[in-house]
Amino acid sequence: MKTTENYEQLLARFTKRLAQTNPEDKERVSYLKGCIDTVQYLMTGKLPRDGNHDGMKDHQPSHGHVRRDLDSLD
Q1: Which CB contacts under 8 angstroms, 24+ apart, belong to 39-48?
Q2: Which of 35, 42, 54, 66 could form a disulfide bond with 14, CB atoms 3.0-4.6 angstroms apart?
Q3: Alpha carbon distance 15, 21 (integer Å)
């Protein structure tokens, strides 16, 4: 089983794949850009400046901490 990659490794992988992707494959390009935006958000807490997040404040990055207290959702 492969170990979990850190954010920097994921960002490098998605960026490399984007550079290798045919620009005419718009669906794959969009997908990879979304992956990059997601990893950058998780790293920094800053939302993409793509026009879809106007008026929303940036957040503090979670640093990989996942809340597992699901009982509080009841």
Answers
A1: 39/7, 39/10, 39/11, 39/14, 40/11, 42/7, 43/7, 43/8, 43/11
A2: 35
A3: 10
